[in-house]
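Researcher: Following up on the earlier apo prediction. This time include the ligand. It's zinc ion, with the SMILES given after the sequence.
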Amino acid sequence: MKLYDTRAREAVDIIPVRERHLTIYACGPTVYRDAHVGNMRTFLLSDLISRLAQLHGWRTTVVQNITDVGHMADDTGLGGIDEGQGDGEDRVLRQASDEGKGALAVARHYEDAFHRDLGALNVHPADHYPRASESIDDMIDLITTLMENGHAYIGNDGSVFFDARSFADYGAISGNRLEELRPGHRFDGGVDPAKRFHADWALWKKAPETRTQLVWETPWGVGFPGWHTECSAMSLKLLGESIDVHTGGIDLRFPHHEDERAQSNAATGRDVVRHWVHAEHLLFDGRKMSKSAGNVVLVQDVIDRGLDPLALRLAFLQHRYRQQMNLTWSVIEGAQTTLDRWRSRVAQWATSPSAPIPDNYREEFLAAADDDLDTPRALQVLRSVERDSELADGAKFEFFAWADRLLGIDLARRVGQVVDEEPLPEAIAVLVEERAQARASKDFATSDRIRDELAAQGFSVTDTPDGQVVERS
Ligand SMILES: [Zn+2]
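Model: Understood. Below is the ligand-bound prediction.
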């Protein structure tokens, strides 16, 4: 499997440090508002990498953080190095005051919405979703280590800063080398007097006395973490000192990922993340999504229009993750048409006897996916299989069901039918289990014989990527 490594500036082979076990850290949401579809496209990236690894028979461990403290209103991740170090307000706190609620109540509300949206897009849940507010001890440990080994200092205002000049390799991901970085433009006079050097950033910020929520007691007084601190602390704790792949949106390259890399490497003396992989921006109707442009689209908006959120997922897959993509309603509607057609074909093919997937199609699909997640090309293989008049329907079914393990668009979902929810009679359940075993060992003859037997007893069975769906016929 090859992925485009932003630091190497080329697509490189991904070889897990632990044999056949890929570890992925994905920068997650700041939970102060609903994630829009552009955010969701970024969150899809770690799911695709993880699904592809699993298709190769590897294990995966995925960690995605939940930022519920420390992300300031001016932390855009774009522009000057000083972004995020100013007197901007914590995004969660500001939203809480707007909504007249407690900070954590607001954070949990948007965290739930985030999980609901991931579910709607068939994103497999990560193994861990650490919250920044619950990882404060880990951050304190990290900062203590950085102070002990000379990479961090207490500034004039009582905050703790990372000493950027102590990390010689700063800028390797984004190309923003320290000597080229100008003092931030947002501060009058250009330089924050609390720190020694304009490119230093806060690991821990001293809280103003007016701040009563999201503050913690530390060896350096009462305060709260800087945004970049959490990702180093959580990734080192949950994935260790060698992490195979780190994902995020392209705008996180700098300063978020540069700062995170400096912290993790300075704390451990190792190059912790092997590959930094970034998802490109999504435009909607040709423009960056923003409140002021009035073009912010949520997953719920897609559902409210009567569209399947997996049509949105298919629309994303029609573009490679690191291609800038212009989404429109007609793009999603077009994807819905394709999805409906494929699902009804798959349902039809499912009634034919199973047949093995021809190797050439399997290889073409994998070659496209392995080539830096070239999902548009992988989808072309589905079209070739669909059109192949020589290929048995049962083989088409098996191919689509297999490919859906990566695509995750529920190709074997039955359109317009409700799964029977009554428990199956004992004898039928036994047959279904025997058929599952036959399919697992690729004994399609037995599997088809059992299907006929079930049909004779009044039960129809459909194969889906998640197993068999049995209905009273
Ligand atoms: Zn992060």
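Model: Residues 27, 231, 256, 260 surround zinc ion (CB under 6 Å).
Researcher: Noted. I'll compare it with the apo version next.
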